[in-house]
Amino acid sequence: MTDPKPQTSPPGAARKPHSYTHHGVTVDDPWAWLRDPAYPEVKDPAILDYLNAENAFFGDWKAKHQALLDTLFAEMKGRIKDDDRSVPIKDGEWLYWWAFTTGAQYRTWYRKPIAGGDEQIIFDEPAEAAGKDYFVLGAMEVSPDHSLMATLIDDDGSERFQLRIRDLASGKDIETVTDVGIGQPTWSNDSKGVLFTEVNDQWRSYRARYHRLGDDPANAVTLYEETEDLGFSVGIGKSQDESTIFIGTGDNTTSEVRFVSADDPAQPLTLIKPRHANREYDVDAAHGKLWILTNDEHINFRLAEADPERPAEWSTVIAGSDDIYLTDVTPYRDWLAVTRRVAGLDQLALRDYAGEETPLPFEEASFTAYLHGNPEFAPATVRVGYSSMVTPTTVLDYHPDTRAFDIRKVQEIPSGYDGSLYTTERIEVTARDGVKVPVSVVTKKGFPRDGSGRLFLYAYGAYGHAVAPTFNSNRLSLLDRGFACAIAHIRGGDDLGYRWFLDGKLMKRTNTFNDFVDVARGLVAEGFAAPGRIGINGGSAGGELMGAVANSDPELWGAIVADVPFVDVLSTMLDDTLPLTPGEWPEWGNPIADEAVFHYIKSYSPYDNVTAQNYPPMLITGGLSDPRVTYWEPAKWAAKLRATKTDDKPLLLKINMGAGHGGKSGRWESLHEVAETYAFILTEIAE
Q: Which ranges constitute the DSSP H helices of 31-139?
């Protein structure tokens, strides 16, 4: 691979005749050649030359704006505590925590005996990452006897993790179990065996295995392999009381769970209930019962219990509700920790086994709250995380006996932060079909509401993923330069319940795009900005959103940043050899089997709907080793935009040649990419 050379004019990708036909419709795709047939390896010199040329062109843009990039990076870095550390969490006879040493890109992980003694480094990410362009610690799990630790490491962005076993006394890795692990490893209760999941060549998490330490890893026992549905992924978990191991399989709408004793995971698995289309259930165990969170009777889920001897017989404990969206329940010794969402806001409660609930009190009108690492079955306190768009992330310990909080940590902003200078509000915008879409907005006090300001608008809108109104210190660089910043809680996420998710997927997908456009127009009507003064950003499925609204309403946007965008929706969903595809059909639909789905996806797929019109300035990013949104999607989209659009506004494509879906690793390297996003928006939407 050659280094990119300076490039002063926009690169162009050659057109090469290519087409495909489905349901009697022929689709021309002259940039299909940008997909290397050797993928996940990319070797084709023509492809690499084009990507390097695009990166060089992006590099020219960076050089012109280096002073602003340096300023933004310094601001954002100055708001991050260099030697930050987590609040220690008790697990058995040990306290565990992480810390950054000054200047470090990665965390160092520690523990210390509660009874007294020296702290011990159990994993030194900076040392492990030394000399690598990319490094991610995907998971770590300490054995029940606290003598060993399983880690998952990815050093190329492919999300194929190496599973290693470390002896904590010596600090040495003693076994490598697999090179294609994923998910969260789980230990047997005797600390002599580890359960894990693996991905196949198509990056599908397809089987769960059990390895006994000291045995040949090639002889690991396959406990479960998904063969019935190629769209299903396999995962492993352990019950809160540590009695039971669960092996689940499913996609984004359907699930099936089996269980086995954590004392002897090699025994045959017990199926709880067989898969049934559009029924989801998640299971935990405590007090000799299975606790099942499921949407079988109500769209917003109910909590049921079952006898492990009769696991398919479910009795309701908490009924489903039209107003309350039940998102998680964890059984502890003395109570159930209940997480739910009401009118789009998180609520936490402790419910004793007699049915009496104690809500945890939070005062702000818009916030997010969540359980924050409680590994023990009978903790004396409940660790909680809390944040809002003006309140830095706060770690709290809740005392059930006194119903009081202890503040354990408030996110420190070393360069200074005065929350009284900012204000946040929650606005409802009426979409074109009459549905009210919530929007979380933060501004610096005194922001003009006369249309003269600038607006940064973010959304995701897929997979039932809610975007919480959390604090983001990076955002201050926009707020202090006169931007309002907003999160549109559009359909496709589950911000207002499971129905909110269903109303933005499959044959209702365009609701997501319409909601986003209507929110932008609503904020214009509220005086936050004028058309053309709005910078927008989204990644992955949110990048698809960016592409769709760029096509439909280009005049609204002053700048668009689309990160790892899923924009070639039609051809990707027609290719069942891709890792993204079979498991994604429940979200987008199967255009191979259903002609109506084919035409619907074709009607909105951003790549397929690029037209000869003016587009706003655009920055598009991708990752060469990204297994989720393959690099050729943003590359093809950028090439087609360059060849088709009728304006001369900036269009930049940046492909991370050594990273995947999440961009660069390391806290400072990733911060540089945020600076690039903000600099692009600031330079294209001037004061």
A: 45-64, 66-78, 125-129
